[in-house]
Amino acid sequence: MELSSWRDIILIIWGTVATIATVFISVILYLFYRKTISVLNSTDLMVARVGNIANYVEKEVVGSISRFGMMIQGIIQGISIFGSIFNKKEARDE
C-alpha cells in the first residue's frame, strides 16, 4: 500500500469520527436546551408570582403605614391647635 492510500484511509476515518462526534454533541446540546427552557419557564412563573406578592404587600403595608402616619400627623396638629388656643387664653389672663 502506498502512502497516499494510507492518507485517504486516515482522512475517511477522521471525517467519520468528526461527523459522529458532531451529531453526538448536537444531540446533547439539544437535550440540554430543552431542560434549560423548562427551568427558565418555571423560573419566570415564580418571578411573576413573587412580583404579584410584592405588589400586594406594598399596597397593603405601605398604604396602612401611610394612613397611620396621616392619623398621627392629624393628632399632633389637633394637639398643637388646642395648645395654641390655651396659650393665647393664658396670655390674655396675665
Q: What are the defining features of this structure?
A:
94 residues; rod-shaped; mainly alpha
What is the mean pLDDT? 87
Number of strands: 0
**Low-confidence segments:** none
Number of helices: 1
Largest sheet: none
Helix content: over 70%
Along the chain, the helix and strand elements come as H
| β-sheet strand percentage | under 5%
Give the terminus-to-terminus CA distance. 131 Å
**How is the quaternary structure best described?**
single chain
Structural class: mainly alpha
Tell me the radius of gyration. Answer: 39 Å
- Assign an overall shape: rod-shaped
Please describe what this structure looks like:
By secondary structure, the protein is mainly alpha-helical. Helices cover 97% and strands 0% of the residues. It is built from one helix and no strands. The longest helix is centred in the middle third of the chain and has 91 residues. The N and C termini lie far apart (131 Å).
